[in-house]
Specification:
211 residues, alpha/beta, six-stranded mixed beta sheet, 8 strands, globular
Length: 211
């Protein structure tokens, strides 16, 4: 519903018809780029961040969709609270049971966690697809095939507490078999500990007061 936007699309060395679809788009609000070498989640997102020109940045993967009011909600927040630099909304998960237990047949659920400094040091409580922030020099770690979004959030929130915005941001899909969490299961624990160690260095020394 908010149309004053820029859509930066990063084609990360796709092998299907993505390139043809992207090149056919004529809307001047769409910025399309392609990498012939697979950069991974972090690397591809960094390309998008380098190209983005908007005042506020948010993220979306190709298997999920924004709620049509999400961008309008963000504009309202950042305009009315100029001191806010980071915000996050809720995600509507299509199958709660499949998402958490990998067993299909569950009901949808709405996930919107409270911000907690102790919890964010142990696990990611804000999905990248519900995150928004003012433009920043922070970039994703391309050496993390998993949890690069968590490490990114840790860097962003090291000096600014995110605002919890109680609106639906994203409709989250769980039925694709090649989701990174499943494909990289063997690397999961080692990468998890690496990011937890990073969390203790960025968020463990001092706790900022809540507001």
């Amino acid at each position: 519903s908010y149309t004053n936007l820029e859509l930066v699309v990063v084609d990360d060395a796709s092998t299907d018809d993505t390139a043809a679809v992207g090149e056919s788009v004529t809307d001047e609000r769409v910025c399309w780029t392609r990498s012939d070498e697979c950069l991974g989640e972090g690397g591809a997102r960094n390309v998008g961040l380098d190209l983005a020109r908007g005042d506020v940045v948010c993220f979306l993967d190709d298997d999920n969709t924004f709620d049509r009011e999400w961008l309008r909600s963000l504009v309202w927040l950042f305009e009315n609270q100029p001191e806010t630099s980071i915000a996050y909304g809720a995600r509507l998960v299509d199958d709660h049971q499949r998402h958490h237990e990998q067993l299909a047949g569950g009901l949808p659920s709405i996930e919107l966690n409270d911000w907690d400094e102790d919890v964010i040091s142990e696990r990611c409580i804000v999905d990248i697809k519900v995150l928004a922030h003012r433009r920043s020099a922070v970039r994703f770690r391309s050496d993390l095939p998993l949890f690069s979004d968590w490490a990114y959030l840790l860097e962003l929130s090291a000096s600014s507490r995110p605002v919890r915005l109680p609106v639906i941001a994203t409709r989250y899909t769980t039925d694709l078999p090649d989701r990174a969490t499943f494909v990289r299961r063997q690397e999961h624990d080692e990468l998890l500990e690496r990011v937890r160690a990073h969390a203790s260095s960025t968020h463990g020394a001092a706790r900022r007061p809540s507001r």
